[in-house]
């Protein structure tokens, strides 16, 4: 099961923003962050500074780090950040300006920046290209290394399957992020962002199975009340939504193989006997050259499994709220509490979440 989480922090003076080369003092005022599996994260951060003349050139395209920390406890030393996101202050379309000088007073000025991973910069490269006799991972690595100067420490492939070389792949008018994301999603490869604490960089991790999920976090169910001070990490506001989805997703294709193999169909049932599914979604002219089995990458059975799993993935949508700074896409959490829905007690995977915060405000 997958969950969409809304994260709220309760005192934000302890969250820190650092921008390489910027010597002006920075105090975080508000932030809104969006994170999702297989998508670059985005944090819009508003801050104040006594420097009323910070120039865009000193901020844009600079490395940045945003640290999320637990609320300070009176009488205790300052805690080590629970999580730090590394990225770059990016250039965005005019409607999504990522560096703003918002206002000034006698003592300080307010600014806003957007922090994203370097992979978000792939949207600025739009190409027309043909790739021949390469696998999907090889094409992705070629783009990351040759067009965007990403190095070996910037990304890692943790793949279980072996992917066949494709005779020809075309990129036509797509930006690099759209193109790479399309290729990866076709074969069930997903990615997430991790932090290399030693190098202080973000690392793109690619997976094609569940080995990339983080596990082991359990949080109590605790509804906000007058006695809830926000210092104890908890979850609340849990809700579930279920819907009927396709029972099967057969697919077929016509190839240039020998006559007896030209027309192929394949089907996979991943429901396990679930009687809340119905119907079928037929896909024709899918990109496979042999039937194979469900584990043979890019075979007919493989694509049939991938297609059906995508439908089943929309069968249950789970949502909730939390005060934990540890939440991130790809993390499996369990919720303690007799009042928690059974599916949350069993464990759910966070697919997407939003984090918000405002200085001096209890609850965002």
TrEMBL record:
Gene3D superfamilies: 2.30.110.50, 4.10.180.10. InterPro entries: T6SS_Vgr_RhsGE. Pfam families: Phage_GPD. It comes from the Bacteria. Signal peptide: none annotated. This is Type VI secretion system tip protein VgrG. It comes from Escherichia coli. The lineage of its organism: Bacteria, Pseudomonadati, Pseudomonadota, Gammaproteobacteria, Enterobacterales.
């Amino acid at each position: 099961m997958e969950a969409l989480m809304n994260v709220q922090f309760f005192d934000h003076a302890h969250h820190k923003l650092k921008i390489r080369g910027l010597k002006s003092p920075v105090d975080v005022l508000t932030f809104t962050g969006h994170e999702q599996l297989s998508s670059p994260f985005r944090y819009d951060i508003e801050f104040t500074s006594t420097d009323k003349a910070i120039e865009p050139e000193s901020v844009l395209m600079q490395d940045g780090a945003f640290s999320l920390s637990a609320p300070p406890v009176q009488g205790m030393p300052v805690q080590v950040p629970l999580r730090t996101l590394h990225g770059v202050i990016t250039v965005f379309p005019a409607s999504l300006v990522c560096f703003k000088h918002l206002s000034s007073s006698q003592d300080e000025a307010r600014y806003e920046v957007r922090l994203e991973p370097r992979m978000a910069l792939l949207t600025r490269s739009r190409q027309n290209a043909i790739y021949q006799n390469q696998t999907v991972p090889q094409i992705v690595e070629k783009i990351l290394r040759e067009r965007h100067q990403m190095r070996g420490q910037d990304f890692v492939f943790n793949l279980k399957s072996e992917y066949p070389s494709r005779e020809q792949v075309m990129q036509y008018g797509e930006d690099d992020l759209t193109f790479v994301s399309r290729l990866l999603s076709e074969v069930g490869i997903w990615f997430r962002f991790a932090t290399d604490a030693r190098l202080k960089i973000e690392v793109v991790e690619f997976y094609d199975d569940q080995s990339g999920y983080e596990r082991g976090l359990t949080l109590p169910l605790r509804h906000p009340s007058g006695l809830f001070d926000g210092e104890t990490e908890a979850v609340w506001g849990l809700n579930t939504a279920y819907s009927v989805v396709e029972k099967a997703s057969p697919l077929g294709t016509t190839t240039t193989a020998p006559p007896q193999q030209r027309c192929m169909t394949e089907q996979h049932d991943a429901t396990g006997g679930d009687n809340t599914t119905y119907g079928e979604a037929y896909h024709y002219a899918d990109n496979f050259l042999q039937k194979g089995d469900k584990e043979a990458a890019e075979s007919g059975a493989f694509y049939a499994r991938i297609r059906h799993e995508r439908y089943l993935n929309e069968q249950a949508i789970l949502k909730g709220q939390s005060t934990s700074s540890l939440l991130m896409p790809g993390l499996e959490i369990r919720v303690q509490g007799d009042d928690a829905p059974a599916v949350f007690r069993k464990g759910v995977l966070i697919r997407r979440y939003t984090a918000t915060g405002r200085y001096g405000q209890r609850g965002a």
